[in-house]
């Protein structure tokens, strides 16, 4: 028994469902039904229909950025949409489904895009286009549609720092102005309503919110902390609260080794001092921390998962050195695995200033290393990869953002009443 999503009418999605153009872009907000509501059902239904093309060309393809993402998003969902009687063979290894009519539905990834070559396709979905490796459509998919005259839907949300963000934006501009191509745009609020979306403003920075929920292109500043404001996020006075623990974010790079010292009050992070040492050890930093603030009653230490690994320069891991230092009344919070960089960066920007305009992080002017990172730590141009060429940058940022990703992690909660959207029209399939 196949399981198809319940119907909920949406005019733009209905027009996309009925569109017969060969090249289509769907630019839409997060959780708005673009992948599972419309595009994957459209691909599956096309594959199930009676085929007239030569059997070698009866191929339908879903492409995610990575194999893990592609399988996680599409594989089980596609299988759930197909009646069991229509399936002649399933390969869990190849992520391929053979159907009764000679059609094949395949799952592939942009990271292994050479697998796309060598066959024709009647229908292709390229998902998360901003995150795809550059050239997947132009160099691999589009040539494979030449002989079959097959269709391709490129879907995603705008991302100013994605690997293919700039090229996807250019494609959106081209499709929007070309009547021979299909361009469809809708926001998350157009499905869920403004009240639902407004609740999500507190979980993202303003720029991330505009991209992910309003599906709007935002110009990249190149700086990772693009929500940082020299006035709203900087303070020149802070009185340490004796009844609150000192929260220490740590980055154990040897030169510089960084501790960012903070307190958390009323769900806000106040960074009041930092320790930055060149050619130093964890023990050196702990000695300075004790000398300066050892009189304080409680300390909480935060870092990344690698801090639990033993280094050749020490007899025990950084984590264990801190945990075993009896001078401090401390709790030590180091995760077993790290969040994705993009999630840590997004959490940091949200705390600097969320989409409601609320500022929840302030940094003292004496924290010169962190302030320099916030002003200068950037992406490599045209990518979502941090530029690590300046060895003095990023370490204070990392120490600070480890606290944030642990205390205020990125989480997107689906509404329990959410119904996936699919809109059938009278136009049929391509």
Structural summary, described in words:
The structure is a single chain. This protein has two domains: 11-212, Rossmann fold (3-Layer(aba) Sandwich); 234-407, 2-Layer Sandwich (Nucleotidyltransferase, domain 5). Strand 11 (257-265) and strand 12 form a beta hairpin. It has helices at residues 11-18, 34-48, 67-81, 136-144, 165-177, 189-192, 194-199, 206-212, 282-293, 318-323, 341-352, 368-376, 395-407, and strands at 23-28, 59-64, 87-91, 96-99, 104-109, 123-126, 151-156, 182-186, 234-235, 246-251, 257-265, 268-277, 299-302, 330-333, 361-364. The model is unreliable at 310-315 and 414-430 (pLDDT under 50). Helices cover 30% and strands 19% of the residues. It contains 13 helices and 15 strands. It is α/β, with parallel strands linked by helices.
Which terms summarize this structure?
Rossmann fold; 2 domains; alpha/beta; Nucleotidyltransferase, domain 5; disordered C terminus; 430 residues; 13 helices
